[in-house]
Amino acid sequence: MQSTAIYPGSFDPITNGHVSIIKRALRIFDKVIVAVSENDAKGPLFSLDERVAMINQLGLDRVDVIPFKGLLVDLCVEKDVSVMIRGLRAVSDFEYELQLALANRRMNRDVETIFLMTDYKYSFLSSSMIKDMARFSGSIDGLVPEHVKIALQERFK
Length: 157
Ligand code: PNS
Known about the structure:
Blueprint lengths: L3 E6 L6 H11 L4 E7 L10 H9 L6 E6 L3 H8 L3 E6 L2 H17 L4 E6 L9 H9 L10 H10 L2
Parallel strand pairs: 1-2, 2-3, 4-5
The protein binds 4'-phosphopantetheine.
The site of 4'-phosphopantetheine (PNS) has 10 residues, from strand 1 and helix 4.
């Protein structure tokens, strides 16, 4: 049987830190479903379709990219997946991630959260920081895939 994990997030936009997590997850699981959250409350820079397309453009084998609304645990049941991946950068991530993992466990005890560490090169990186850097023409070379860099430059032109 194929082992599959769901890697959820807003991915607004995807960074090389996220890509590093996907590649690590692919060393453990046969297939990774990258679930892109609508997350309208956060007022995303890129639409849901744009965020999904940017991840698809990476052309990663054994990766499915899907948009989702609603609860993560419901998505896990719908996809028959019992493992969720989250990336951890620094201790500062831990509190929110613990809260998320415990809330999800409270709703569905059959879903486990596994934390993977981002490559140390990207441990300071977040989508919000990338957007700030791009907005004010700071260099984002090597921090996001090339097509994401172009999309950000276009958006802030
Ligand atoms: O990349 P992010 O912004 O940290 O990801 C946030 C995400 C997608 C994990 C979060 O928005 C989310 O879980 N959304 C779905 C609603 C849900 O299931 N919440 C968890 C328990 S209340």
